[in-house]
Design goal:
Blueprint (H helix, E strand, L loop, with lengths): L1 H33 L2 E7 L7 H17 L3 E7 L2 H13 L6 E4 L2 H9 L7 H8 L12 E2 L2 E2 L2 E2 L2 E3 L2 E4 H6 L8 H13 L3 E3 L7 H15 L3 H7 L7 H15 L12 H9 L3 E5 L5 H5 L6 H5 L1 E4 L13 E6 L2 E4 L6 H23 L16 H11 L3 E4 L1 H4 L2 H15 L5 H17 L1
Parallel strand pairs: 1-2, 9-10, 12-14
Antiparallel strand pairs: 3-13, 4-5, 6-13, 7-12, 8-10, 8-11
Length: about 425
């Protein structure tokens, strides 16, 4: 009996040791699994509408994960407007992704004031600062600290379909009256002169900004926004009036106010519209995106927004500036790793964006070392001789004023507001913001 009891006791001991060893092994596995850190990253370049940019981002993530085995990038990709809406919701509940895309100036300010974006000067000072084009990171600074690292430097040309222009014997316009003649000729022939998707509203804002610049000069809009001037300046009223004249002359594709930018852009990509005003982030579609027919890509040219007779504007003055940039969440639980990822991303993006996507990065480009499509070279040449870059109006403004501006832009293009009322409501919104 004693022997049996002793044997039973030994079996129990062995089972207990085995169980403990198993637990320790399980704990070890759990600890190893738990040592991997996850960075949540959101961006706005879907594979469908921004194929080349999306491919580069995917490649950069793979490179980073390969060099940092203990870090996993958890990715979410949304198109522009969906992205902005989700970021707004996440910020209200203090749940921003660890790394995401942002815009400069007025867009960024409430996030910084709400202590939602981390200071990135430490990242810049790790040898990254000198790689940026002068003036680009400054747009992402507030009170002497940098809260975003720009990825793009953009200007907004008017792209045009050379084949359509040749078919109707049209020349690239240098004056606004010449441009109006093109609009009338194409409209009379049943061709949509201009592709526009104004449901997103900022697309229409580009047209208004250029009109304001060409009529009132490069500083008239900036002064109205920074409050050294007024939005009821006669030049800004005239710009609104000219926009409505374009609408009434059937300058834009049918249903433009109810179409997204991607839907409006498709009118140009499909050869149904002759012109398309948009930032140089679209260059990949006209140069390296092989999903679009080569015949179409070879037929895309661009021109500068024409000068208005009697206006103060300069034809070398552009709407543009730094494009999207990267932020790191101040409340990120993996802030150090997120900053490493952002630094890595900026360096790799600068190396690949030009050659693989035809995108102008905010970092310096040695064009002698790479082969570029001619369209891209032409844009770079124009950028080098630009007399002025006016930052996108909605980006300059605070979030609330920007929303007023964008709603009024859609109303203007929809003939739902008179030019005087359009400028008056802007002025009221800007004054109200001053009083806060």
């Amino acid at each position: 009996m004693l022997k049996k009891t002793h044997t039973f006791f030994l079996v129990l001991v062995f089972l207990l040791i085995a169980a403990l060893t198993g637990c320790n092994g399980s704990d070890k596995a759990n600890n190893e699994s738990g040592s991997q850190k996850t960075i949540k990253f959101m961006h706005l370049w879907p594979a469908g509408s921004s194929k080349q940019q999306n491919l580069i981002v995917t490649d950069i993530i793979k490179q980073f994960e390969a060099e940092n085995k203990d870090v996993k990038i958890e990715l979410e990709v949304l198109e522009n407007e969906q992205y902005k809406n989700k970021i707004k919701v996440l910020s209200s509940s203090n749940e921003l992704p660890d790394v995401g895309f942002t815009w400069a100036a007025g867009y960024m300010t409430p996030f910084v004031e709400g202590n939602l974006y981390a200071d990135l000067d430490d990242v810049l000072n790790e040898g990254l600062k000198d790689s940026f084009v002068s003036g680009t990171t400054e747009a992402y600074a507030l009170d002497g600290k940098t809260y975003g690292l720009p990825l793009e430097l953009n200007i907004a040309p008017i792209y045009y379909n050379k084949e359509i222009f040749e078919k109707y014997n049209l020349e690239v316009p240098k004056t606004y009256s010449e441009f109006q003649t093109i609009v009338k000729t194409l409209s009379d022939k049943g061709i949509a002169p201009i592709a526009l998707g104004n449901k997103d509203r900022w697309t229409g804002s580009l047209w208004y900004m250029y009109m304001a610049d060409r009529i009132g000069g490069s500083d008239v809009l900036n002064k109205a926004i920074d409050r050294t001037g007024s939005f009821e300046d006669p030049a800004l009223v005239s710009a609104a009036d000219e926009i409505q004249k374009l609408v009434n002359e059937n300058a834009f594709n049918k249903g433009f106010n109810g179409l997204s930018n991607d839907e409006g852009k498709s009118e140009f990509l499909n050869g149904k519209a002759a012109m398309y005003l948009m930032g140089t982030w679209e260059l990949p579609n006209f140069t390296t995106n092989e999903e679009l027919p080569k015949e179409f890509r070879d037929n895309v040219g661009f021109f500068k927004f024409p000068t208005v007779e009697g206006g103060k504007g300069d034809i070398d003055s552009w709407v543009g500036g730094p494009g999207v940039g990267l932020f790191v969440s101040e409340n990120s639980k993996v802030k150090a790793e997120s900053k490493e990822f952002v630094k890595f991303f900026v360096e790799k993006w600068g190396e690949q964006a030009v050659e693989k996507a035809g995108v102008i990065p905010a970092t310096k480009v040695d064009t002698a070392k790479i082969e570029l499509p001619q369209l891209y070279i032409d844009v770079l040449n124009e950028l080098s001789k630009a007399s002025n870059l006016t930052l996108f109006a909605d980006v300059q403004m605070s979030a609330s004023v920007a929303e007023t501006h964008l709603n009024l832009i859609q109303s203007l293009f929809g003939n739902e507001v008179k030019p005087n009322e359009f400028t008056k409501k802007h002025e009221e919104a800007l004054k109200a913001e001053e009083r806060k």
